[in-house]
């Protein structure tokens, strides 16, 4: 159940980032939006690090870069298990995997996105034909549909999903900025608790409904972001290549 605070006479899902931290715990399953670090919530990731949250089972498209996006959690060794489509942009993730410090399950990007979407929609899983004849097939249940065989890929959900948005109203309707949209709409649906870090929060009714991507019904809490200097992020990416 979402506990809404009051701001004047209006209800709001906005809480402080300190209050958001109360939903993080050791051993949690954490789903993080973003793609290569862009669209990942920097403030919430920093809170996870500051609060010494550890043994995280993380689900994300990738591991960003060593000090960008979810990559910071990897570098700080807060993640013990990971589901991702690739980790190639973060050498620290590769090193921890090779050393046995980080258990990694790779899932093709499209399949991963669909597994997250299925979790958000309350489905049990999806049917795929990608991976037959490879190690992906090992241990997977198969079904036949219209004379074609598919593997069953279970849906993915998380204890907490954290996402990043450009705008939100006080109800949690979210608008994303260009490519920062990436996996965030899917991740926002799949958390038992979803917390959105937002650049600008406006009163309910001020957003153009045609621009809303994630309806507020999927969002439990919103926190004010201090913003991201994407030029700095780009420069840091170049330095870490």
TrEMBL record:
Matching InterPro entries: 3-oxoacid_CoA-transf_A, CoA_trans_fam_I, CoA_transf_BS, NagB/RpiA_transferase-like
Keyword Repeat tagged: no
Signal peptide: none
Source species, domain of life: Bacteria
Entry-linked Gene3D superfamilies: Glutaconate Coenzyme A-transferase
GO terms, molecular function: CoA-transferase activity
Keywords: Transferase
Manganese keyword on record: no
Matches recorded under PROSITE patterns: COA_TRANSF_1
Family: Belongs to the 3-oxoacid CoA-transferase subunit A family.
Protein name, as recorded: Acetate CoA/acetoacetate CoA-transferase alpha subunit
């Amino acid at each position: 159940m979402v506990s809404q605070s009051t701001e004047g006479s209006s209800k709001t899902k906005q809480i402080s980032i300190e209050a958001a931290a109360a939903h993080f715990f050791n051993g949690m399953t954490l789903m993080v939006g973003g793609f290569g670090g862009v669209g990942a919530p920097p403030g919430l990731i920093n809170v996870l690090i500051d609060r010494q949250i550890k043994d995280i089972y993380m689900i994300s498209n990738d591991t960003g870069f060593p000090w960008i996006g979810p990559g910071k959690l990897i570098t700080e060794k807060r993640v013990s298990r990971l589901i991702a489509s690739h980790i190639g942009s973060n050498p620290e993730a590769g090193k921890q995997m090779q050393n046995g410090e980080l258990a990694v399950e790779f899932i093709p990007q499209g399949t991963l996105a669909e597994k997250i979407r299925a979790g958000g929609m309350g489905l049990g899983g999806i049917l795929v034909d990608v991976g037959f004849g490879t190690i992906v097939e090992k241990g997977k249940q198969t079904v036949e549909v219209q004379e074609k065989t598919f593997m069953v890929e279970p849906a993915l959900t998380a204890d907490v999903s954290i996402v990043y948005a450009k705008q939100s109203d006080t109800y949690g309707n979210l608008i994303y900025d260009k490519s920062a949209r990436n996996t965030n709409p899917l991740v926002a649906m799949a958390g038992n608790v979803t917390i959105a870090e937002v650049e600008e929060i406006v009163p309910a009714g001020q957003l153009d409904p045609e621009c809303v991507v994630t309806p507020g019904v999927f969002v439990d809490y919103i926190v004010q972001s201090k913003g991201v200097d994407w030029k700095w992020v780009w420069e840091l990416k170049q330095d870490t290549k």
